[in-house]
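Notes from the 1:1 (GR / supervisor)

We went over the backlog. Supervisor wanted to see one worked example end to end before approving the batch request, so GR pasted a single chain during the call. The sequence is below; no edits were made to it. Supervisor asked that the structure be written out right there so they could see what the output format looks like.
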Amino acid sequence: MSSRTPLAVEPPLRSVPARPAERARDDGWPPPPHDPRERELALVVAGWEVRLFVGRRFEYFVARGFWHLQLWHPEARVSVLTPSRLTCGLYEAYPIANWKAQAPDYDKLVTLLGGLFAAKLPEKAAVLRLERALVAEVVRGSGGVPS
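Structure output shown during the call:
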């Protein structure tokens, strides 16, 4: 019997169907919206880069409820997007089974990533603080659509 945590949890984690045009890229970087090069580095927490859009992308995403932050682990090459309208209100991780997968909350996200990557997510309290300060407060202050 395996000691790995099973991926099947209640409610089930959603796998986002692949679009053929977005499948694996030859340059080794994740496809959008998980490509970290699209965002600027804001800070590093427990080995994870916190990345955000700037400029016109910032304006576009905030005004439409798509505002989120990306957690990127450069060594493990794992991307996590925080919940927003872009991800249907769920956390989204890449790569999971060579594509994207979603989890409804932080605990399920940890389960999703557990055993697959050596990189552990920052603690729940740290992630929730980042989301509050860099997503919720920004949207509230801008008058944008809540994520």
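Supervisor's comment: The helical segments are 55-63, 106-113, 124-142.
Batch request approved.
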